[in-house]
């Protein structure tokens, strides 16, 4: 099913002559090989997640929040879906165990709340 979803998303872009795809979601790097196969060898696929990780590290360092040997961090996953399912997927896909919480925007879209 994931391949069908990717084809439905990528093929119209290719039909319009796209030569570069910039990934813009946290889980897309997991399917880069499939996206590359669907898009073809002439299409450049750009994954900005390494740059986002570097910026996150800079901000953590700037604010003194990076985990150290004497101050370990913890992993919390946020999802708009089922937290239990995300915990299982995170363990399977990236080998991480952590707390998962459900994130919900209020009706105005201005306030994010968490449960779990």
Shape annotation: globular
Query: In what range is the share of β-strand residues?
Result: 15-25%
Continuous helix count = 4
Q: From the alpha carbons, calculate the radius of gyration and give it in angstroms.
A: 18 Å
Question: What is the ordering of alpha helices and beta strands?
Answer: HEHEHEHEE
- What's the total count of β strands? 5
> Helix content range of the residues, please?
40-55%
Q: Which regions are unreliable across 5 or more consecutive residues at pLDDT < 50?
A: none
Q: What attributes does this structure have?
A:
single chain; 116 residues; alpha/beta; three-stranded mixed beta sheet; 4 helices
Structure characterization notes:
- This protein has helices at 2-15, 32-39, 49-62, 83-94, and strands spanning 20-22, 44-46, 76-79, 99-105, 112-115.
- It has 116 residues and is α/β, with parallel strands linked by helices.
- The strands form 2 sheets. The protein has a 3-stranded mixed sheet. The protein has a two-stranded parallel sheet with strand order 1-2.
- The protein is globular, with a radius of gyration of 18 Å.
- The model has no long low-confidence stretch (mean pLDDT 90).
Question: Could you give a quick summary of the protein structure above?
Answer:
The chain contains 4 helices and 5 strands, in the order αβαβαβαββ. The protein has 116 residues and is of the alpha/beta class.
Write the layout of secondary structure elements.
Elements lengths: L1 H14 L4 E3 L9 H8 L4 E3 L2 H14 L13 E4 L3 H12 L4 E7 L6 E4 L1
Parallel strand pairs: 1-2, 3-4
Antiparallel strand pairs: 4-5
């Amino acid at each position: 099913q994931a391949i069908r979803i990717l084809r439905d998303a990528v093929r119209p872009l290719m039909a319009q002559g796209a030569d570069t795809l910039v990934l813009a979601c946290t889980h897309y790097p997991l399917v880069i090989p499939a996206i590359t196969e669907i898009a073809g060898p002439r299409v450049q696929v750009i994954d900005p997640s390494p740059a986002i990780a570097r910026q996150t590290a800079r901000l953590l360092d700037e604010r003194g929040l990076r985990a150290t040997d004497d101050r370990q961090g913890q992993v919390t996953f946020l999802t708009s879906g089922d937290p239990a399912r995300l915990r299982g997927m995170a363990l399977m896909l990236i080998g991480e165990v952590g707390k998962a919480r459900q994130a919900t925007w209020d009706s105005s879209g201005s306030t994010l709340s968490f449960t779990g």
